[in-house]
User: Which sequence fits this backbone?
């Protein structure tokens, strides 16, 4: 395989495939190298794929793609030990084109996406591991794979090799991620008949809902749990910064078992059958962890570039957008036959002007603020539950007395000033 | 925290897998001497697939 390509993409996740599709559509000669048996076979995702960013690559994809359910209701739960404060939003607008987001099984979806790429000329090679980037004269010129005679050459190599990005690390783009730059997530697929899912989640036929859970479900660790509806499965999972699991000595699958047995969750999933267990690291270092993105002949996209907004559980969208930007940059560079760092830095500019940098920047201190001040997860979230309980439990106490009690719950063990400051600080981090 | 120590059998969970895992582990301990002197043995704790075990 000594022929030369316009671009080699390492990794057939949604970021890599978005890049491949965009370049193939423009007539470039593209090869995608995937280590798994097929695209998606190594993929783990809670399951929410964003419509807008996917449609920018393949318009009207929902007519054809294997999707589980369009999400028409999104919920946020703040969990106490035996209580929960619920908020949510449901919108019928989301039940029709162009939709907002879908639950998907990446094993199926990525195969479909890959097939679309192949139809327009992308070459996809599965079960092949890229061992390293080939560097000549200070420029990445190709990759060495584990196949015999496995050197492949291209003008640009796109690293879409996921959270650990060993290739990015070997090029010195990033160091081994610190424990507070990655979240460890585990999830299960629980089988449940579709009509039962619709009954339990109060959904019209075929429609879906999501629940994001903060609070007791992560035992005070900075993290979240989630419940998503698929066609005839429920995805349930949880994740926390690795640094937090490390500190609290919690094993990830025990945490998941705790959540499944939580009194607020148990009835929702009762009678379902576990049929799959997954685990993965999620790059949640945010803005400050974004590695170097380009160099001579190389661009980094998706999880490998830490493009995940943990606060909003967005990631697939950023993966796809960054893949498209990388493709547009390479198409543009091809005009001048110049693939040096300075030309490819157009990609950095696109990322910077887009929602990716803007969103990650907005929340750049949110995780560390929550991690450094344990009160958010360990005090304020339980206190919120207690406060709502005060207001709604009818026990003969006057409402004005209850308001005083609420203030006491919120400030317990700290001055009113400290509590106000804590809350203002969090508002500032997410404003 | 002790209340979450409902022992979970990770082997039961992994048995469910239709996720395609490698048959040969890519995880190799380069130097076992390092593990002997490691107090916390985090890899035996946090690996979600329970890949690592420590036996004296």
Assistant:
């Amino acid at each position: 395989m000594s022929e030369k390509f316009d671009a080699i993409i390492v990794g057939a996740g949604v970021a890599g495939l978005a890049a491949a599709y965009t370049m193939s559509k423009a007539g470039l000669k593209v090869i995608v190298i995937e280590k798994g048996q097929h695209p998606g076979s190594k993929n783990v995702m809670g399951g929410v794929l964003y419509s807008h960013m996917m449609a920018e690559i393949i318009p009207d994809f929902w007519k054809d793609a294997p999707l589980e359910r369009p999400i028409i209701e999104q919920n946020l739960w703040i969990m106490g030990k035996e209580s929960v404060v619920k908020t949510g939003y449901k919108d019928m607008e989301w039940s029709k084109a162009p939709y907002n987001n879908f639950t998907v099984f990446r094993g199926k979806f990525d195969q479909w996406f890959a097939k679309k790429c192949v139809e327009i000329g992308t070459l996809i090679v599965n079960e092949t591991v890229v061992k390293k980037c080939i560097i000549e004269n200070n420029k990445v010129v190709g990759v060495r794979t584990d196949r015999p005679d496995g050197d492949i050459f291209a003008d640009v190599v796109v690293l879409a090799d996921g959270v650990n990005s060993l290739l990015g690390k070997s090029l010195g783009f990033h160091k081994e991620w610190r424990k507070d730059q990655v979240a460890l997530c585990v999830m299960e697929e629980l089988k449940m008949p579709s009509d039962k899912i619709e009954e339990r989640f109060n959904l019209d036929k075929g429609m879906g809902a999501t629940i994001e859970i903060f609070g007791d479900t992560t035992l005070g660790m900075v993290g979240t749990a989630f419940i998503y509806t698929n066609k005839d499965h429920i995805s349930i999972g949880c994740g926390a910064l690795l640094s937090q699991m490390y500190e609290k000595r919690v094993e990830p699958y025990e945490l998941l078992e705790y959540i499944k047995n939580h009194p607020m969750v148990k009835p929702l999933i009762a009678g379902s059958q576990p049929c799959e267990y997954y685990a993965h690291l999620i790059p949640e270092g945010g803005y400050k962890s974004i590695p170097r993105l380009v160099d001579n002949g190389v661009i980094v996209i998706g999880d490998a570039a830490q493009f995940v907004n943990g606060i909003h559980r967005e990631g697939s969208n950023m993966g796809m957008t960054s893949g498209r930007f990388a493709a547009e940059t390479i198409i543009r560079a091809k005009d001048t036959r110049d693939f040096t760092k300075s030309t490819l830095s157009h990609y950095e500019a696109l990322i910077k002007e887009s929602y990716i940098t803007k969103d990650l920047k907005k929340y750049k201190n949110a995780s560390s603020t929550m991690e450094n001040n344990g009160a958010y997860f360990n005090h304020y979230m339980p206190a919120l539950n207690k406060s709502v309980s005060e207001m709604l439990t009818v026990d003969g106490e006057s409402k004005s007395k209850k308001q005083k009690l609420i203030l006491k719950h919120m400030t317990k063990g700290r001055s009113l000033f400290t509590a106000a400051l804590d809350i203002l600080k969090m508002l500032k981090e997410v404003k | 925290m002790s209340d979450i120590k409902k022992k979970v059998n990770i082997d039961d969970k992994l048995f469910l897998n239709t996720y395609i895992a490698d048959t040969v582990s890519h995880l190799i301990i380069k130097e076992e001497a390092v593990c002997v002197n490691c107090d916390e043995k985090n890899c035996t704790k946090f690996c979600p697939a329970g890949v690592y075990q420590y036996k004296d």
